[in-house]
Amino acid sequence: MVAGALLDLYALSQPAGVPVAGAAGPWAYVWPRDSALAAAALARTGHLADADRVVSFWGQVQPESGVFAARYRPDGSGVPDDRGDQLDGTGWALWGTERVAAGLPEGERATFVRRHRELIDRSTATALAKIGRTGLPPASADYWEVREWRTTLATAALLNAGLESAAKLYGIVDDPAARAAALRGAARLAAGIERFFGPTGYPRRLGGRASTVDLGVGFLLPPFRAVSQPDVVRSWRSAAGAMLRPAGGLAPGGSWRQDGISWTTATSSYALTAACLGDRAEAVHWLRWLDQHRTPAGSLPEKVTATGRPAAVAPLAWTAAAVILTAAELDPAPRP
In what order do the strands lie in the sheet with 303-304? Predict the structure, then answer.
């Protein structure tokens, strides 16, 4: 399954060299989140030039505002529609850039950071500027891709992960002032998340119920952050019950529509968090489920129906990348 997922990432990168979310139709564009996971997976498995191309693509398409659009044409010529901006993309790009840097031989990391310094600086400045008086960012669409009126945990968590990643990147090039600014911003954002989301069990939206928990709580845990706060882990574990669907996979969140559909993006992301928390049994459980619901061609689909049939587009970059990263976490190979 991992070998197939790597081949699918390669196929999804043709001909532009940057993986699109899916091979056809409305999926055939580059989303920051999908490509960030793909870049991390490519770097983790030693495909460093491929991973570097993804980071270069972000630098090419990022506007002066620092806030990425939901998706881009793979040739870098702009956005395909008026889907709008998604603030979490800034966090995804910083996190993905740091993951690629971490995959490089130590002696090459500083050169990599300097080459992508404009992307890192602009993204960091944007993330810092978006932290409001409460310590939280404004409402923005996230991976649900719907208009939001309240701050979502996913957006706040990914900006937090992005700032912590920025601090690591500035550390590589020995820029203590920039590193300190990123760390201060990350600490302020983390405190805001804990203060406003923690008491209600880290729900999807600010002021929501614990039963609405979604993948956002996982973005507060490894591999996105180094820490594993016990209350966050408890909420993450409870999320599986709220997100479970009839075929045995997971929906994107507890308040997602009850249509019986399992989403492989959510299921593979849950497996990745389990692996990073050291819960091998949980991670393997979800990997086995994914393996059992591949298409006849062997690819991982976007969805699985209530009766267990693969559905929608296949292959899918997000799922392929998360599966690769999960397997690498469970059985790590020596790094370059």
Answer: 262-263, 303-304, 310-311
